[in-house]
């Protein structure tokens, strides 16, 4: 099924995303691969949802958008939790970590997530980032890439205030950049389009404030783990998509992640052997996932192409088994 952005290519002005080379041709150029574990971080309107649809299709993984999951939960106006969630979202704040984490935990076990997952808008705080590490460690999974969609605040107002959504499918349009074929109607079903209740100037300002205060510290958190890259999200949809794929592929080629022990001051104590019983570890220590670059200290630029292929394959298997 082609997405709305692909379906109207070639007919729009210079700002319009549909003037892009086809997304299919980008997929063809970069080849297809299955499975990845990805986090998308970015302010409201930076394009997380737009890119999620394409990336999850490419990697055949599930999309877990905490915004969408919370909107579903808020729908139940009869429960006090539903009402609380709705209030927080309309005020542009962050919903309680416990609620968000339990939604993630539940949804991660779904069969659609067996090849991997893409978190759209999660984690949003250092605490959520730490809790996610614990959760993934308990499931013996790890993140491949954290992509930040960077864009100045003043460009976001136009994107957010012009957004139209088809609620049942999650398809997103834009009055100016990606208009539906027929005004306020979904291209595929003809059903009415809506605006999100938090897409107002007032709530957008609050959402941006929350993003800068609570979410941007996460960028440094993931930079330290060497799995973060920033992408210029002012670019056209297809350019952002292409860059996202290239960065994810680069990360997947490099074994950069391994479990280690760190103390309260974030100092590395020692590497955990796979046989260590976590219950025996001293209480003052916590287990975290930290980057370790080029763990065999090999200058890969001097290796032949064939040897490099074997080297990458072997280190990848060793890494997956927690041996390096
Ligand atoms: P959420 O639904 O995640 O909202 P958000 O982070 O504010 O992001 P948006 O969905 O508004 O933007 P987007 O980046 O997905 O942009 P899109 O692709 O749609 O969260 C909502 C609320 O839920 C939060 O405020 C919070 O209260 C709560 N919440 C969520 N997660 C939480 C968590 N982990 N913890 C606690 N609370 C949480 O694009 C926007 C528009 O721009 C579209 O119209 C699109 O067509 C257009 N567009 C996209 N890309 C481009 C481009 N490159 N060029 C031109 N136009 C573009
Ligand atoms: Mg979104």
Keyphrases for this structure?
324 residues; binds BIS(adenosine)-5'-pentaphosphate; five-stranded parallel beta sheet; 10 strands; 2 domains; globular; binds magnesium ion; Rossmann fold; three-stranded antiparallel beta sheet; disordered N terminus; alpha/beta
Main beta sheet: strand number and arrangement?
5 strands, parallel
Task: Kindly identify the CATH topology of the largest domain.
Answer: Rossmann fold
Q: Could you give the distance between the termini?
A: 41 Å
Overall shape: it is globular
Helicity range: 40-55%
Low-confidence stretches: 1-20, 256-262, 269-298
Strand content: 5-15%
Distinct helical segment count: 12
User: Mean pLDDT across all residues, rounded?
Assistant: 80
CATH superfamily of the largest domain: P-loop containing nucleotide triphosphate hydrolases
**Strands side by side in the biggest sheet:** 2-3-1-4-7
CATH architecture of the largest domain: 3-Layer(aba) Sandwich
Biased composition (Basic and acidic residues): 172-195
Organism: Rotaria sordida
Pfam families: ADK (PF00406), ADK_lid (PF05191)
Family: Belongs to the adenylate kinase family.
């Amino acid at each position: 099924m082609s997405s709305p952005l692909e379906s109207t290519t070639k007919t729009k002005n210079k700002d319009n995303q549909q003037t892009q080379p086809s997304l299919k041709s980008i997929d063809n150029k970069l080849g297809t691969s299955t499975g990845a574990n990805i986090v998308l971080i970015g302010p409201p309107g930076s394009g997380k949802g737009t890119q999620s649809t394409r990336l999850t299709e490419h990697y055949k993984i599930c999309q877990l958008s905490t915004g969408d999951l919370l909107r579903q939960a808020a729908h139940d106006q009869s429960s006090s939790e539903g009402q609380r969630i709705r209030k927080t979202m309309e005020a542009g704040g962050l919903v309680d970590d416990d609620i968000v984490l339990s939604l993630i935990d539940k949804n991660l076990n779904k069969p659609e997530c067996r090849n991997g997952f893409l978190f759209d808008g999660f984690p949003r705080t250092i605490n959520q980032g730490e809790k996610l590490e614990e959760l993934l460690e308990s499931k013996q999974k790890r993140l491949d890439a954290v992509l930040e969609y960077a864009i100045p605040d003043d460009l976001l107002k136009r994107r957010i205030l012009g957004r139209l959504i088809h609620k049942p499918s999650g398809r997103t349009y834009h009055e100016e950049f990606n208009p539906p074929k027929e005004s306020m109607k979904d291209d595929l079903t003809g059903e009415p389009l809506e605006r999100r209740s938090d897409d107002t100037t007032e709530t957008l300002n609050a959402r941006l404030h929350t993003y800068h205060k609570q979410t941007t510290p996460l960028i440094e958190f993931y930079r330290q783990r060497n799995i973060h890259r920033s992408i210029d999200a002012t670019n056209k949809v297809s350019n952002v998509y292409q860059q996202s794929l290239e960065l994810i592929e680069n990360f997947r080629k490099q074994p950069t992640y391994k479990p280690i022990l760190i103390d309260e001051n974030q100092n590395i104590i020692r590497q955990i052997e796979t046989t260590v019983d976590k219950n025996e570890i001293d209480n003052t220590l916590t287990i975290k996932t930290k980057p370790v670059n080029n763990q065999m200290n090999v200058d890969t630029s001097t290796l032949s192409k064939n040897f490099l292929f074997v080297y990458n394959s072997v280190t990848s298997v060793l890494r997956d088994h927690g041996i390096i």
